[in-house]
Design goal:
11 helices, seven-stranded antiparallel β-sheet
Length: 289
């Protein structure tokens, strides 16, 4: 079978990103684990599989949403016997606060007990109609594309909030813990990212062997423990640098033992030095992975 993956439309800015994509069977089976400093909202149009988000597994099926917080590590596994089509928004905290200065949406997202929301049939019909306009953006002048995307995202988020608060038309799924032990390790890492995190210390903390931790961590997250820690540290560091925090302060609070190592890792991941990143945020392409 010919491999085919079609990007129907893509809009890419540092604070707002939209990707409408369709993949036929066998075009892929997994996205690698990745971390970014933006919110991610995924709407599944067709296909089945699962999302892995911070040690929990959530099923993929048509009509569900996944609302992923910044810094949450996640990856996608898709069954290759059906067409997989989805709409993905990425948006920054700053943009969220611009469209809603009251912080109602931020409180809604923070208060969700799980990133997955399942719609009733009537609610699903509304969102299908709402997102139809996104497929016409290729014929829309570029200067209006961002406004249309932002308007659609705003309506989507407020509608999800209202449905979840005022009716039973949205169900928040709990997900499945793949391993309670690894889930605890992930939570511990998240809470101690600025501290020294060695394999020996983690094994002692949770009374497990190095071989077990390395093997199960890779199975569940799709990456090594060190790469997971490194990705989170660098994304948080970049976010702070772009928010105006002095580079020296960021480095000292990032969990790196020396600045030269921090500098090398930063350039390798983002293709730009911390100093240039601090000065040129508005000119940088979005780095989501």
């Amino acid at each position: 079978m010919e491999i085919y993956s079609q990007r129907i439309f893509c809009y890419d800015t540092p604070d707002l990103f939209l990707d409408c994509k369709c993949s036929i069977p066998e075009s892929f089976d997994q996205y690698d684990m990745h971390v970014h400093n933006l919110y991610e909202l995924d709407y599944i149009i067709s296909g089945h599989g699962c999302y892995h988000i911070e040690g929990k597994r959530y099923p993929i099926f048509p009509g569900c949403f996944l609302l992923i917080h910044p810094i949450d590590a996640h990856m996608t596994q898709v069954e290759n016997d059906t067409t997989y089509e989805r709409i993905t928004f990425h948006f920054s905290r700053e943009l969220l606060n611009e469209i809603d200065p009251s912080r109602i949406l931020e409180e809604f997202i923070a208060g969700l007990p799980s990133p997955q929301l399942t719609l009733s049939a009537s609610a699903e019909g509304f969102f299908k109609q709402l997102f139809q306009g996104l497929y016409t953006l290729t014929a829309t002048p570029k200067e209006f594309q961002g406004r249309m995307i932002l308007s659609t995202l705003t309506v989507c988020l407020f509608t999800l909030r209202n449905l979840q608060r005022n009716s039973s038309e949205v169900t928040v799924s709990t997900g499945v813990n793949i391993s309670q032990t690894i889930r605890k390790v992930l939570l511990y890492i998240h809470q101690h990212l600025s501290e020294d995190l060695s394999l020996d210390d983690l094994c002692k903390q949770f009374s497990i062997s190095k071989s077990y931790l390395n093997k199960r961590f890779k199975e569940i997250t799709g990456t090594t423990l060190w790469d997971y820690v490194l990705a989170k540290r660098l994304i948080i560091a970049r976010q702070n640098i772009q928010n105006g925090v002095p580079i020296q302060t960021v480095y000292q609070n990032s969990g790196f033992r020396d600045y030269s190592n921090f500098y090398r890792c930063y350039i390798k991941r983002f293709g730009v030095s911390p100093k240039k990143d601090s000065a040129n945020r508005s000119n940088l392409p979005r780095q989501s992975n």
